[in-house]
Every structure is written in structure tokens, then in C-alpha cells.
Amino acid sequence: MNLKKRFSQANEKLRMPHTDPELFQSMSEKITSWLPEFPHEYVVVCIGTDRSTGDALGPLTGTLLSEMKPRHMTVYGTLHEPVHATNLVEYTNFIKEKHRNPYIIAVDACLGQTTSVGHLITGKGPLKPGAALNKPLPSVGNIHITGVVNISGFMEYSVLQNTRLSIVMDMSEKIAGLLNIIDQRLKYHFSAPAIVIQQEKQQSM
């Protein structure tokens, strides 16, 4: 779990309420526009623990996305096998060893202002897990998606413990659905440029 105000500086961000009917279209298009032009191994790291309601956003998302059986994404961090403060470094090293030049999408919960609760935020660059609880953890992700689950500023650990499960579940479903849409678009994202290059070469011959 990380504090929104302590995000790494990113060139671009998009913030939308998770109830916005345009969420899937707008956010999936934005994230797809950030993806690299050449094929990569895509890894989704869903950070958090099921021992805290607010911090369960990541594991819930990982479980829901895994059940959708993505074809182009490998998912780490589920309710049964969470990625959290005590094993994040281990998972980070494992991903580097198992995946060649992985492109990582990090998912985590965060705290923010009252008006931001219920918003999903995506941006370029990594996020810093554990910032709200002052835990020294490595930054994770080429891009990130976070959900503002509750209010920051006082007794963050207690706030996370007392976050409503309903909003966390709703936001997890939206993030998993969003990532599933992106997974389905990946083959198109990479095949189109290859076809264009091939046609150009044929015309020049």
C-alpha cells in the first residue's frame, strides 16, 4: 500500500472514478498508448495482503484477473499467494530471473483525499509500495494502476483495516476487467506495426 502523494513522478497520469461508464475505454486506451512498440513479456504484480481489507485490493485483482486466464500476461499476487512487504524483494528477483526483459504493470491500493476515494489512477513509472507505513521496499513497475481505497493523513494502518470491503471489491473487479481488455488488445498492438513495415518494404522493392 502506498500513499498517492508519494508516487514517483511520472510524465503522464489518468485519474477516473471507478464508477465512470467511460472507465474501460478511456483508461485502456491510455495504458495501451504507453506500451512499448516491440514485444515484451508482460507481468502484472498485484501488491497487498488479504490480512487488511483496504490492502486486499491487489490480491483481489490478481485473483480475479487470473480467473480470466489472460493470454499475454503473467500474474503475481493473489489471495492465495499474495505479494506483500515481506516477500516483495524475493518476487522481484524471481521475476527478473524468470522473465526476459519483462514489462511490469504494478497494482496497489493507496490512500488519498476524501474526494479521491473510489478513484483509479494509472501512470507511467513505478510505484513505491509501503510508503504509507514507512516500509523500505523497492519501487515496482514500468507503469502502475492504483485504487484510492480510503482517506490518508492519520493512523493509516488502522484506516486500511477498517476500509469497506465493498468498495475494494468493486475497484478490484474494475482493474481486473481493465487489464483483461488490455491483454486482449496486445496481439493487435504488436501485429499492426509489423504489417505496415512489411508493406513498406514490398513497395520499395
Automatic annotation (TrEMBL):
Single Gene Ontology MF annotation: peptidase activity
Gene Ontology annotations of biological process type: proteolysis
Entry keyword set: Hydrolase, Protease
Keyword flag Lipid metabolism: no
Pfam family, one: DUF1256
UniProt cross-references to InterPro entries, sorted A to Z: Pept_HybD-like_dom_sf (IPR023430), YyaC (IPR009665)
Protein name per UniProt: Spore protease YyaC
Species for this entry: Virgibacillus indicus
Lineage of origin: Bacteria, Bacillati, Bacillota, Bacilli, Bacillales
Gene: yyaC
